[in-house]
What does this fold into?
Amino acid sequence: MDREEGGEGGLMIENMKIAIVGAGETSVLAAKTFSRVYPVIVFDTDHSKKSMFDENGIAFTDQADKLANADIFLLTGSKSLIYSLDVLSEQCKIVGQYMKKGSVIIFEAPVYPGTTEQVCIPLLEQHSGFVVEKEFFVGYVPSAWHSSGEQRKMGGMCKVIAGQSNPVTNYLADLFAPIHDGGLYKAKAISIAEAAQVLEIAQKEVNIALLNEVALTLNQQGIDMQDVLETASKKRGFIKFEPNLLGEDTISVQGAEQYWCRAEKKGRQVAQRIIKNLIQNEVVIHQSRITVLGISAGKGKSGTPEAGVLELVKELQEYGMEVQVADSKLDFEKVECAGGIMLTKQEELLPGDSVILAVPHEEYRKAGWKLIERLLERDEGYVFDVKSILGRNEKPEKVTLWRI
It folds into this structure.
């Protein structure tokens, strides 16, 4: 396969057009990165996702026939638990219907080893009528899209690439070289790259799960977890992870449902700790109003609510509290209800007894205690800073701060 020279079904790198199939947070980062060098269009059947690409100047379509002009297809994954093999299969069906001879299909979603070659390629062949390695080509590039600032912070992270054959892998190297300065690593096989991504996810989730348990235990003892992490980071060999009590509660690897156990949710436990703390301070729960700031950790305006935050809110409501929820990142005109939770515009939030800072959006970091004080009656009350972003030294005298 000599992709530089073209030929029947061939494609010269400088002339290619890239279609990113599936809209999500990783899709925005991928599109922004690719568009620095190549023409890019993003496809998703959900038209409501268009806004997060419009605000970044990226072409978006919900019309599948627009994919017919693409030469390369990048099928992105999602951190959402609703992303499954059904969705991946549907993406393969759509791409198969509109791809042309010589197309390159690149998968990046976390999948169980073997999924790309045993599930995705047969679907592409079925719906396109083409033969893999003769009329189209397939690669796997584990998702790792970061901003340039994040890449510098991580020391120029190496990007893993894998193709069905050495020529495909080399072609992927030529594709990614102009947009990734952290170096490329050519995996020996697609299944090896898939397994490496699963291992990376497992390591991260296991470490975060461990720190979640440690954080809750230390909190019971009155020990600040952030102080412990700061101290431990001075130790040689310490690998820094942070708790994520209200984040995703499952290792999301497509095709691996029977291999991975569902991790215990922490939102309910955090809610119960908050209720216990308020009762110990003689707050009448069923007469109390509490404000939750942040429900989605996504960077776009239509982000998926965090499972742990949803559980936290529902648990507080079951105890009879009046819970008002706001999120500075969500476009209120398009999101009136998130995961069954009604949202309130930030300027319409009423003062209450307590505030939970659940997701550390940059707006909340900048506003700091000024925002929190406005949401407390008589400038006093209880603040639960789950991600420990509020400065303890600036805490108002009448406010009681609880953080992990």
User: Anything to note?
Assistant: Confidence is low (pLDDT under 50) at residues 1-11, 79-83, 146-155, 257-263. The two ends are 55 Å apart (CA to CA). Residues 190-220 form the longest helix (31 residues).
